[in-house]
Amino acid sequence: MYQAVLGAKHCLDRDVLPRDIRIDNIYACPPEYFVDFEYEAEPATVWSLGIMMYRTVCGRQPFTDQHDGLSFDSRMSTAERATMEEMLHHDWFQQEQMSGVAQESSRVT
């Protein structure tokens, strides 16, 4: 997940829109696209990465495609959508075991 976030941030930092983030191809459309017909690169990318992380952790989609709205797993916390920088600074990515991945990824740029 950390490498996916770094890869997406790398693209966004270079004004490249990574529009194909999903579990199969790391992409899931954010809700504002369907509500407002708007698409902003960073929030959409964060949404897609969040969907991928949710499916990885829970083993299923975070919501059902029903008329009664979005239904999330009660084991997950509710929070506002993060930014790319906030995702990179999340506790999950600050563990000792991530230090090697972060060092290698920073050398790639």
TrEMBL record:
**ATP-binding: present as a keyword of the record?**
yes
Query: Which is one GO molecular function term here?
Result: kinase activity
Q: What is its EC number?
A: 2.7.11.1
Reaction equations catalysed: L-threonyl-[protein] + ATP = O-phospho-L-threonyl-[protein] + ADP + H(+); L-seryl-[protein] + ATP = O-phospho-L-seryl-[protein] + ADP + H(+)
Q: Which domain of life is it from?
A: Eukaryota
- Please identify the protein, giving its name as recorded: non-specific serine/threonine protein kinase
Q: Does the keyword Methyltransferase apply?
A: no
Keywords per UniProt: ATP-binding, Kinase, Nucleotide-binding, Serine/threonine-protein kinase, Transferase
